[in-house]
Amino acid sequence: MSNILVNAPKTARRGEVVEIKALILHPMETGFRPGPNGRIIPRNIIERFTATWNGAEIFAMEMSPAIAANPFVSFFAQARESGTVVLRWTGDEGFAAEERVAIAVE
Amino acid sequence: MDRRRFLTGTTAAVLVLPLAPASATQEAMAEAIRKVVGTATPTEGRVKLDVPPLVENGSTVPLTVTVESPMSEADHVKAIHVFNEKNPQPNVFSARLGPRNGKAVVGTRVKLGDSQRIIAIAETSDGRFWSGGADVIVTLAACLEESP
Amino acid sequence: MTARLLAFGLALVFAASYAAAQAGADKRRSGYQDMGEALQKMQDDDTANPGMLFVQLGGQLWAKPAGAENKSCADCHGVAADSMKGVATRYPAIPQGADRPVDLEGRINMCRTENQKAERLPPENRDLLSLEAYVAHQSRGMPIAPPYGPVVDAFRAQGEGIYRRRQGQLNLSCAICHDDNAGKKLAGIVIPEAHPTGYPIYRLEWQALGSLKRRLRNCLVGIRAEAWSLDAPEYVALELYLMERAKGMKLETPAVRP
User: Fold this and answer.
1) Which residue has the higher pLDDT, C23 or B115?
2) What pLDDT sits at residue C14?
3) Which Gene3D superfamilies did the record assign (chain B) (predicted)?
C-alpha cells in the first residue's frame, strides 16, 4: 500500500501554467546512520521521480539521501491538452509507486 | 549593480566554485559541480534559492529554486542541480525541465546536518550555466530522543 | 430618537470592546505560533503536511476489517467525519465500562481487543498512530473540551502534581520550563507553552508521526529523568492536566513541529 498525496487542479485553461505538488510516504534512510545495534542501517531512498503528461515526460528529479523523509516535490506544468499526468517514484529495494491525476483543459 | 560590483561578483564566483579551499566536503561539492558544468564557468545570477534563513530543524528544510527564464522552446532551463557542502554527499537533487514546465520553479525538502551554504546551478538551453546560493543557519533542537 | 441612537452607539462600543477583550484575554500560544512561516505553511497545506500521509493511511485502516470478528472500525462507527467529530477534543476520558481514564490510543486498543477481537497495537506503532491521527483529524479546528467527574478529576489532579514536581538530574519540573520560562529560548528554539493541540504530531526531528507520550519522554530525557514505562498511568494523568490547561484551544491534528 503506497501512501501518496497529490495536489493538481482538475481543470485548467489552455496554456495556463499550473502547479503540481506531491508527497509520498517513504523513510529516505540515508545509509549513514547507525541503527540500535550499532550497525549502519542500509540505504533505502527514492532515487528517481518522474512526471509524464499523456505519456511525454515533463519533469524528472534524481534524489539523493539529502532529500527529507516522506519526500515532497513541487513543479509547474503548462496545460496544453486534456490528459493524464502520471507521477512515478522508484528507488532502492525495488520501490515503485505511481499516482495518476486527470487534468481537463478548456 | 555597478561595473565594479559586477566584476567582483564574477571573480568571486570563478574563485569559489572551481577552486574549493581546505575543507574536504567543500572540495567534494566543487568536484560535484565540476561534473555537471564540465569546463564551463557558471555565471552568478538568474537562480534564486529560497530557504528559511534560520531553520528550526535540519531534518526537513523547505527549499525552492526559481530560475528566471521565459521557458520557451528557444530559451529554457534544461536542468537544475542543488549542492551542499557539509552533508556526507554533496549532491542534493538534479531536476530535468523543459518548455512544458512554463516556469522554472522546483520545490522540495532537504536534510541539512549543519549550518552551511547551499548552491543551485541551472543549465539553460543555450548550454550556459547559472548559479545562486543561500546561507542557512540550522539551530539545534532541545529535548530530543534518548540515544539508542 | 437621539437617546435611542446613543444607546445603540454605546451598545456597539461595548460589543466591540467586549470582543476585543475576549480576543485579548487568551494569551495562550499554541506551538504553531512559535514556528517560522515556512513550517506554518507546511502544516496548513494538506498536500504539504506530511502528517496528512498518516491521516490518509488511518482512513484506509478505518475501513479495513481486523481481528477474529473480521470487523472494521467503519462497520460499527460508519463515517468517521460524523461519528468521530469532536471525540478527540474530550480525550483522555473514561469510556463506558472502564474505571479509569484512557487516552485516545488506549481507546482505539480497547475497541480492537473488545469489539474486533484483534491484538493490541504496541505504542508508537505506525498503524495505531495513523488511526489515532485519522480520528483526531475529524476534530480539527474544534475547541478542546475535557470531561469532568470525580474519577477523572482525581487523575487530573495527579497529573498537575506531576507537572509541578521537580525531577531528574536537572531537578526541573514541567512548570519551570513551560510556565515560568515559556517563550524564552533553549538551544535556539522557543520554549513552547506545552499545549497538546496537535497530537499525534509530525515532528521534523522524528521524520515521522509520534504520540504525546513520545514527546513527553523526550522532555524527561531532556531533564535527565527516568522515563516511565510506556504503559504507565502517569502519561494519561499528565495528558489530562495538559488538556485542561489547553481547554478551549483549537485542535490542529496533524500538527507539524520542529
Assistant:
1) B115
2) 54
3) SoxY domain
φ, ψ of residue C242 to 5 degrees: the values are: -65, -40
| Domain B3-138 fold | Immunoglobulin-like (2.60.40)
pLDDT confidence of residue B24: 53
Tell me which of A49-53, B51-55, C91-95, C175-179 is least confident: B51-55
B57: CB partners within 8 A, 6+ apart:
B138, B139, B141, C204, C205, C258
**What is the CATH superfamily name and number for domain A4-105?**
Immunoglobulins (2.60.40.10)
Catalytic annotation, pick one of C73, C174, C177, C219: C219
* B10 — pLDDT class (breaks 50, 70, 90): very low
User: What count of CB pairs under 8 Å joins A to C?
Assistant: 41
- Answer yes or no: do B141 and C206 touch at CB < 8 A: no
Domain ranges of chain A: 4-105
List, as one string, the DSSP characters of C25-71.
Answer: H-----GGGGS-HHHHHHHH-TTT-THHHHHHHHHHHHTS-BTTTTB
Delimit the domains of chain B by residue range: 3-138
CA C121 – CA C127 distance, rounded (Å): 8
Segment C39-45 shows an average pLDDT of 96
State how far residue A75 is from chain B, nearest Cα, in angstroms.
Answer: 5
Region of A93 on the Ramachandran plot (φ > 0 left; ψ -120 to 50 alpha; else beta): left
Is residue C67 assigned to a domain?
A: yes
Contact criterion met (CB below 8 Å) for A71 and A29: no
Q: C218: which chain B residues are within 8 Å (Cβ-Cβ)?
A: 143-145
Strand pairing report for B54-55 and B129-138: parallel
Q: pLDDT tens digits, residue range C189-242?
A: 889 999 999 999 999 999 999 999 999 999 999 999 999 998 899 999 999 999
Whether the complex's predicted ipTM is more than 0.90 is answered with yes
Domain of C112: which CATH number?
1.10.760.10
Low-confidence ranges of chain A (pLDDT < 70): 1
Residue C71 CA: distances (Å) to CA of A41, C38, C76, C135, C181:
37, 41, 8, 17, 48
* C-alpha cell of residue A81: 491538452
Total domains in the fold of chain C? 1
Residues of A in contact with B148 (CB under 8 A): 35-36
